[in-house]
Amino acid sequence: MDKVGQWGDVVEPSDLPMVRQVVTAAFDGHDPVAWRDQAGPVPDSEPQAMGCALALIADFVDQIDGPGACERGLLSMLSRAID
């Protein structure tokens, strides 16, 4: 979240605790959208903070597993969901 917070021109610091909780819920195997919906209305600034967090996560996955790893994983999951 420190790196997300560095995008101060795009991210509201008040959104970071919720973004952290949503990411944690996703990594714990919960549906992040359903989990977030239970917490009430989404402020207009929160999707931007979430987008920044997801971009950083995708970059991390690509650094660890090689360029394009995140995209391949997402496409694989999408393919399985369609079948």
Would you write up a description of this structure?
By secondary structure, the chain is an all-alpha fold. It is 67% helix and 0% strand. The chain has helices at 2-5, 16-27, 32-37, 46-65, 69-82. Helix 2 crosses helix 4. The longest helix is centred in the C-terminal third of the chain and has 20 residues, at 46-65. It is globular. The mean pLDDT is 86.
Task: Itemize the secondary structure elements and their pairings.
Elements: H1 2-5, H2 16-27, H3 32-37, H4 46-65, H5 69-82
Index terms:
83 residues; mainly alpha
Distance between the termini: 35 Å
Strand and helix order: HHHHH
Broad shape: globular
Quaternary:
single chain
Helix/strand-derived category reads mainly alpha
Q: What portion of the residues fall into strands of 2 or more residues?
A: under 5%
Into which percent range does the helicity of residues fall?
A: 55-70%
Low-confidence stretches: none
Number of helices: 5
Q: Compute the gyration radius: what is it? A: 14 Å
User: What is the residue-mean pLDDT, rounded to a whole number?
Assistant: 86
List how many beta strands DSSP finds: 0
- What does the largest sheet look like? none
